[in-house]
Amino acid sequence: MSDDLHPYVVFLPSEQKTKILGAIFGSRAAVDILNFSLHQGISNRIYQRDLVTKLAYSNKTVIGNLKSLTKLKILNEDMEKTEKDGRTVWVKAYQLSDTGRWFALLLADEKELSGKEKAEILLNLFRAYVKWVRNLSEKLSINNKTLVEIFSEEMK
């Protein structure tokens, strides 16, 4: 494998993979929302008003993409109570879901990630992959002992 190529893996819900890929990569605004979330901090909340202010999209475009990404469970939506001009105001806050984090990380420049973040990504990926292999092996009637043996051999 070339030094400037990196393997990327994203686990997609099989029944919605086309919709998810289309919603994200069919719209520059959706990609920019994921990039914005990545730069804010992958676990931090983002707000519609910040997206409209900092990205060059209309409120309508931002809202449409937020709704689409929320419906496809790329973003989680929550209501947050804040004080503005002495009044209590409720605003929508968005945060990347687990699936959304994978897509945001696809867009990340590897140099921007710390060693700790890379290690966490690897461990999460490994756990998800092992679960997937376990479920598939059960469907194919493969003994878990065989998988453990293969793993032990490869880890030597």
Mind explaining what this structure looks like?
With 156 residues, the protein is α+β, with helices and mostly antiparallel strands. The chain has two domains: 12-107, Orthogonal Bundle (Arc Repressor Mutant, subunit A), CATH 1.10.10; 114-156. The protein has seven helices and three strands; from the N terminus they run ααβααββααα. The protein has helices spanning 17-25, 28-40, 48-54, 59-71, 98-107, 115-139, 144-154, and strands at residues 46-47, 75-84, 87-96. A three-stranded antiparallel β-sheet has the order 1-3-2. It is elongated, with a radius of gyration of 19 Å. The two termini are 23 Å apart. The model has no long low-confidence stretch (mean pLDDT 85).
